[in-house]
Design brief:
The structure is a homotetramer of 373-residue chains.
Chain A: E1 11-12, E2 17-22, E3 28-34, H1 44-54, E4 71-73, E5 77-78, E6 81-82, E7 87-92, H2 102-106, H3 114-121, H4 137-153, E8 157-165, E9 168-169, H5 177-182, H6 190-205, E10 212-219, H7 233-242, E11 247-252, H8 263-266, E12 270-272, E13 278-280, E14 288-289, E15 292-293, E16 298-304, E17 314-317, E18 323-326, H9 337-359, H10 364-372
Helix pairs in contact in A: 1-4, 1-9, 4-9, 7-9
């Protein structure tokens, strides 16, 4: 180990800020939310509903580890409502079965952060990835539940689902939560969902894994959120989503297809409809023009790589520099996508709330109001 | 106009920070760079070389506006070397020909930020996009030249080029700057470059435009840069690149193709080569594992939408709510990609320098050294 | 109550950051420390020792509330050493005796934040001050214990003590911790300490309170910490100390006396001593020149106002706008100073660690080292 | 010189941010203001009026250096009004007479940052202090002029003046700008002002200098600005003022005298006056309770040390480690206070604007309004 290291960068946001903590194999995982407005209805059940969506052990496509992930709110809520003060939430770890990790400790798993952790810090917490463990996202989801609740007050809904698993892709326009929750892989087209589970069975038999794409749709978003230079709405959403492990790309609206298109096809034409409302005749922009929301649906997709831990033999090296072949056994999902769906929703919601708050600076008349009261 | 507005968010970075200012039709454009180390060789010629790469009027695929874009350094440099103090640079505007913008002032150009500006601020600077003008990137490129110079000292090179224009895509592995600069469209495969210019001619005849993809390759990047939670290297690069206008997506390594792949194919296997060095047998990860650089090439691609301003007729609405059809005439590139290449390089370089600086917090032994001296 | 409020601003620091949470009458109080280096010895006993210094109920000059204030570490420590990841600490509340606060709820206590809270938020948590309660500093002290431990590794000691209570002032040059802890009022001159307790007895009899001054001395501080423009060492310490409730002023070195002095007397002359070391013949500057530490002792004093809650009759107003007279009974210290001493030490230590980390950006050669390894 | 250094920390503020640049002996000095609302009347004359107040060469108590300090606005203003975009301002240097600084280069001036710069950076810009030169404050005053203009729109006035020079202290309650500007030492009691100039004459004859105190009064400040934990109003003002060179202390309201007082005397009692308005019967708190403005005048005092550069002989050391005696000749004010008055006003105004903007996050109903429009 290097003499001393710092694994920092666990605080996210500007005016609505979250500070996450905890390790996969420590006492628990938690988050402090600074900047949440008062008067929001909030209780443990509401948070729990979101946590359950990313909880392991829900079905055979998710790791078998049986972790209840029960959240406790320690501050910031009084008589079922937020008070405007920091909200501290904790999920204590209950299932830390003592596995023999000595194997993993000695070599670098392909596709994992093992090698980069060792290069950066001179050591790593081989017992489950430490801060780069997927378990860290528990804290993000707990904070995301609060952010979604704020957005909901404003009529804004964030909805993500599995757009594709391997080459099975769905074309889904209607964010029907029910079907998303019914599907074991969060794929609301239930026929495709069935095909997808068959694909996963096949991959599991092959001791292999698969990737996929998550689509996220934000409805009810007002026009005008985002700043035109560095603090573009898409730039900040991009950072938020790419900060989730295993995500390798993000595209807004037509995304990479826009690169193949022409201006005349890709531009969304404006129109006044019969009700006198401004509409766009298409939404290739994904709801963002010049970094600012345009009032239509915000749509983006995130590419998720296949689970790195596979039982199939792979070449790698030991810490001491030998070439070896490894098969990684243990509790591993054949796909990351379904459990990452709620994490994408959470990071999206947290970022939108933060940007809504930042946007208020554009409103000097508001200051005047404060003064005159 | 709303009573009062603020167009903020013009400062970027944490420890290496840039503060950009200026409008397309004001006195000039500029940037202050805070946090640049001393001792770097720096003069106006070095900055100018980068500015020239994004300058308009270089050939017929770039707008005809003849702007020399001459940079002046106002502080932070003494006898050809940086002093460690803030570096202020300015490019005075010289070509503000008084065009009749009254047309544009009255309607919303499809694909532009006209509508979102009006919704957000209640007004817009129709004379050229104001702060959301491509001209703002002049300041980023000037700062990027400094960042690239710092990286160069560390043996790190950032190289971007046109990967595709419309459906003409090249497979380029060798970042040969010469060919990139030779091609009028920054496409280093000169045969493909010729085809691409033919496509552009065609689109121009059709009064239309096209999109494309920029690929960026970072060589010489040490392993260990990036933090494992929110401050992942790919998350920060994602924000940097998506903060450039017209960019609709970014993917690292295999990116969206990883979603179609299996773990056994997508994982990059490690190997000790004959020289005893750690290598990866592939680079699907694009040089980043768990948000931390792994020492191999960092590779990402950015999708650029077609130029929004086209002469072809489009439907849109006036500010007063009438449906009309417009043809946008004036000085407009048929493609954004070639001039955006150096902007991508710049934002990448600025972000890498900032993250290299942030990384230093991981090194407590360094503090001890300071103390003991 | 206003419809919705946010009580934000509970995160402090740049690279070494603390995020505090909790209310006086909620489940508990806590803090997350982001950016603490690994390898530090840390256990609950070490933190507890600091918490005990600000704990209520220690003697008759501190409120009688019997709160054990037992800290629990939830993350970031493994086998007695920090791991470099966020450290989450919690102190559960145990003594929330249900007092009748209905009185206080109806009027504004002079000297308290009651009125400003009501004006800002339209409501207040009258059960003990909410986030502006002195109890919030528990979290700062827990974080301060960690910061002091880091500084200790670097040979830097932060020592604060009671310089004066009312008009009893001591001239103390030797930061002998033992005497500070022996004195019930943290005044290391034990003769003066006795006089001070007599003064406190008198004030208690009069149903009144008194103020005082805390002096803080930092020894072992290397020269060179602090930035010359906005991020001056004294500027940041000033913010840190003034963020503690009841502190009304801060002065460095000769402070306000420097205003009465002449340049020839106030300038600290430099000298090479017999050992060839640079010394200053005086320390009117308090160890900081131009915002940067000069290697000598850092000395500052903070003025603490008298406890606002007194039993003596005072004029005030009710929420409904009537002029009344009130006597505030309950558990209140006749002086704030002694318990604030460890809070001053904590905020100083946290700020020094943060600035030591920021300082590292001055060291580009370090980056080169990273690269070359 | 150390291999590479960074002199960073030249950006101040959160939502209203200023980025200063320039050296005493470079091409010029400037500032970029990010986050200024649109619609403010602004022209060079308005800025110039403030700059003239700190300009050297106004009378014999200010350095003789004849610098016109003419400001030019480069962006963010259109037809005499701000546009909401970043405002770039520059003051070109005109009087860089080539003085022989070789002397100063070889030794450390007592009271200056010479020694700490050398210790921190391994070198210093001996030609006038570089970034720690008083000349850097030119940029702060230019930005402060804008901040004061914003405050003025809200009915908030910031007024600073010389409270004392040496032992000549005035008791001034009425911030009459006219008298402040009439006095050559910014001391509005003109009798005392005369005595003060006599004291300065005496000190000049003795080749010595003197210190003093600046008092700053903010009128029209609404209640409710400031956050109750780390972002207290007094904490942020403290940092702002202590970031000005030569300032050694700050106290709010009764300040250090509060430490000598009792609760019954120091508490400001509330009263409803005849007009039904809430008043305080005293203002020992200086207008801030619990870190939040209470609607009364904000009052603080800053201690300014005597000018360090004096012709009187002082002991010091050379860079090569010899003990010498020096007399510092050249253009030096016998007192810093009068020219620092407008700098105090500027930093106060900038901080108040920033905190007013931050305060807006407390107003969630505002978001709803945005959404519903």
């Amino acid at each position: 180990m290097k003499e001393v290291i710092v694994i920092s960068g666990s605080i996210y946001g500007n005016l609505f800020r979250i500070s996450t903590w905890g390790e996969s194999h420590g006492k628990g995982i938690g988050v402090v939310v600074d900047g949440c407005p008062s008067g929001l209805q909030l209780n443990e059940e509401m948070i729990q509903a979101y946590l359950n969506r990313r909880r392991p052990g829900q079905n055979k496509y998710a790791t078998e580890r049986q972790e209840k992930d029960l959240v406790e709110i320690l501050s910031g809520v009084f008589e079922g409502k937020t008070t405007g003060t920091p909200i501290s939430m904790v999920v204590m770890n209950t299932n830390q079965r003592s596995v023999d990790y000595s194997d993993i400790a000695n070599y670098y798993r392909p596709g994992h952060a093992d090698y980069t952790f060792d290069e950066k810090y001179g050591f790593r917490d081989y017992r489950g990835g430490g801060r780069s463990s997927g378990r860290e996202t528990t804290a993000r989801v707990a904070a995301g539940a609060i952010a979604k609740s704020i957005l909901s007050q404003l009529g804004i809904e964030v909805c993500a689902y599995t757009k594709s698993i391997g080459d099975i892709t769905i074309d889904y326009k209607n964010c029907n939560k029910e079907n998303i929750l019914t599907s074991p892989v969060a794929m609301p087209d239930l026929t495709a969902s069935l095909l997808a589970t068959e694909l996963l069975e096949k991959r599991m038999e092959e001791s292999d894994s698969t990737g996929g794409v998550i689509e996220c749709i934000v409805t009810g978003m007002p026009a005008g959120i985002g700043e035109p230079v560095f603090e573009k709405l898409d730039a900040n959403l991009g950072k938020a989503i790419l900060s989730i492990g295993a995500i390798k790309g993000i595209e807004f609206g037509s995304g990479f297809n826009a690169a193949l298109s022409s201006g005349s096809k890709n531009n969304d034409n404006f129109q006044i409809n019969e009700d006198g409302k401004v509409i766009k005749l298409s939404n290739h922009a994904g709801g963002i023009l010049g970094g600012i929301s345009d009032g239509s649906e915000i749509i983006f997709r995130a590419a998720v790589k296949p689970t790195s831990s596979i039982a199939k033999a792979q070449k790698t090296i030991t810490k001491t520099g030998e070439n070896i072949e490894v098969s990684i056994h243990g509790r591993h999902d054949p796909i990351i996508v379904p459990r990452a769906v709620v994490v994408v929703e959470s990071m999206t919601a947290i970022t939108l709330v933060d940007m809504l708050f930042m946007n208020m600076t554009a409103q000097m008349d508001h200051i005047k109001k404060i003064y005159k009261k």
